[in-house]
């Protein structure tokens, strides 16, 4: 569904791109690079031109290491979050509602206090 892999361990981040800095990306890339069956999943933010293509370039070390989907309605948003195996929070600027929604629907969240 939504072009997402069913066989990968899917790590989602639906945070606003401005919260994703180089330290966060480096940590996520290291996790994906060291686990052969994992992939990152981002939203394609239309107002953030080039975000999806930048993520695809950054994670291009392995085919299928990154996926992006369009932003969807609120109900679809909650349904799609259930497709993720875990949700990766940003650790310089933690998510608020994004993390709360993931917890609400039962998707585990990896985060740091901040």
TrEMBL record:
MF terms in GO: glycosyltransferase activity
Pathways involved: Protein modification; protein glycosylation
Keywords noted in UniProt: Repeat, TPR repeat, Transferase
GO BP term, pick one: protein O-linked glycosylation
Superkingdom of this protein's organism: Eukaryota
Domain O-GlcNAc transferase C-terminal residues, every copy: 3-113
Protein name, UniProt field: O-GlcNAc transferase C-terminal domain-containing protein
Organism of derivation: Palpitomonas bilix
């Amino acid at each position: 569904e939504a072009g997402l892999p069913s066989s990968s361990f899917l790590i989602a981040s639906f945070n606003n791109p401005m919260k994703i800095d180089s330290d966060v990306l480096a940590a996520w890339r290291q996790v994906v690079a060291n686990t052969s069956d994992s992939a990152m999943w981002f939203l394609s933010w239309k107002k953030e031109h080039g975000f999806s293509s930048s993520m695809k370039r950054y994670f291009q070390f392995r085919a299928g290491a990154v996926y992006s989907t369009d932003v969807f309605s609120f109900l679809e948003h909650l349904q799609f979050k259930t497709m993720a195996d875990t949700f990766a929070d940003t650790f310089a600027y933690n998510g608020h509602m994004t993390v709360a929604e993931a917890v609400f629907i039962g998707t585990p969240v990896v985060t740091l206090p901040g």
